[in-house]
Amino acid sequence: MNKKVGLWLDQNKAVIVSITDSGEERKRILSDMEHYVHFSSNGPGDGSAKDARDPRFLNHLSEYYDKVVATIGDAKSIQIFGPGEAKYELKRRLESEGMFDNIVSVDDAGSLSDRQVAKRVRERFPARSLFDIF
Fold this sequence. Notes:
The chain is of the alpha/beta class. The protein contains five helices and five strands. The protein has a single domain, classed as Nucleotidyltransferase, domain 5 (2-Layer Sandwich).
């Protein structure tokens, strides 16, 4: 199967659009990150934001990315877009899973509705025509 996936994500949710020969499917994964502290003023470190992150936040974020990777893991082509650092963190996770060659783009994008995400994915991965088959 030639599965192509585009996804918009931030640290709170991922909107995943999968396109296969049999059609299109949308899925939303929520991280529930609002229950965790992003930064803590406790503890030693060089003062960088990464040192200040709450370990519980990092563990929860890792679980969230695990769910996203499990959902898109069999994709042959992956388009990633969204605001902030989440798209780059997911890219690094996919690369560590041996999926570097599957990533076709990583782009900035502000807040989008699920329909806008699906439209952007369809633009990146247009439906195959009969001429592509033969």
